[in-house]
Amino acid sequence: MDKCFEGISRVKFSETDEVFGMLSAEGEEVNFNSKIDVNAGDKKGNVEKWMLEIETVMRKTLRELCRDSLKDYYKAKRTTWVGSWPGQIVLAVDQIDWTAGVESAIKTDNGL
Fold it and tell me: Which residues lie closer than 8 Å to 35 by C-beta, 6 or more apart?
């Protein structure tokens, strides 16, 4: 998996051959917001088909996590917030907040 998707070491399979999450090399787990049945329809035996679906579900899941984490960022204590979200989401949300702060400072000309 790490050759196809940077940062993903493995995907998590259920006993019924559904992909339901991903694992980083460091052991961080992210569960997908929907499962992927690798044997459904024309995906059975076609790895490239369900790998494309993994990419789609991964993006949707990370987008939702990022949105939810950004909301939580302004409510929770920072130490609690950092431990509650996957590392890449923490980094992305930190950058979103930093960029918003810089844009605001530039627009209001706060000493810049």
Answer: 14, 18, 19, 20
Could you tell me the pTM of the whole model? Answer: 0.80
Nearest residue to 8 via CA among 26, 24, 32 = 24
**Backbone φ and ψ of 19, nearest 5°:** -85, 125
pLDDT in tens, 78-92: 999 999 999 989 999
10-108 CATH fold:
Split barrel-like (3.20.180)
Alpha helices in the chain (DSSP H): 47-73, 78-84, 87-108
**Residue 107 DSSP SS3:** helix
Tokens standing for residue 42: 């024309």
Phi, psi of 15 (to 5 degrees): -70, -15
